[in-house]
Design brief:
Elements (H helix, E strand, L loop, with lengths): L1 H21 L3 H21 L3 H26 L10 H24 L11 H7 L1 H9 L4 H22 L4
Helix pairs in contact: 1-2, 2-3, 3-7
């Protein structure tokens, strides 16, 4: 049953990811991206990481998507009526297909899914996901965390400046 659920969520994630890049309306693309984020949160729940699922929904499907939709509305993006050239679409599909095949072959031959790192499964269950993530984020990864927050602030300020009407 879990395998069927995983296959269904994977199908929904793939279709919504394709809709993100094929929708002509930017708002529809953003809504498809929200659905993709929810599918990713479902994967986290299936991997027994409920904190990561909650963060995925709150931060990405919530706050970041509000920021993206707000930016789209501020910039007043018009839908481009020009049609894409069919040979470019076919070439992109062929490249994407062969890239997907290469990734599947790489994953089947490698040992990517083996557990590595300083924390065992029992230690994670004993201490808890949230405490371990917080400990790592605010000790070993504090600088990348702060740089990311500064980049998001710069993106917000840039969107407001670009959207500001000329006086």
């Amino acid at each position: 049953m879990e395998t069927l659920f995983f296959a269904f969520i994977t199908l929904v994630a793939i279709v919504s990811a394709i809709l993100v890049i094929t929708c002509k309306n930017p708002i529809n693309s953003a809504l498809s991206l929200v659905l993709t984020f929810f599918c990713l949160a479902t994967y986290y729940v299936m991997l027994d990481a409920p904190f990561m699922a909650a963060v995925q929904v709150m931060v990405y499907a919530g706050a970041i998507m509000v920021l993206i939709v707000f930016t789209i509305m501020l910039l007043n993006i018009r839908v481009d009526a020009t049609k894409a050239h069919s040979h470019k679409v076919v070439l992109g599909c062929i490249i994407g297909f062969f890239t997907l095949i290469n990734i599947v072959i790489l994953l089947m031959k490698s040992r990517v899914a083996l557990p590595t790192g300083p924390y065992s499964g029992n230690m994670i269950k004993q201490i808890g996901h949230t405490e371990l993530i917080g400990r790592e984020m605010f000790t070993n990864f504090l600088l990348p965390f702060e740089i990311t927050s500064i980049l998001l602030l710069v993106a917000i300020v840039g969107a407001v400046i670009l959207a500001k009407k000329k006086l």
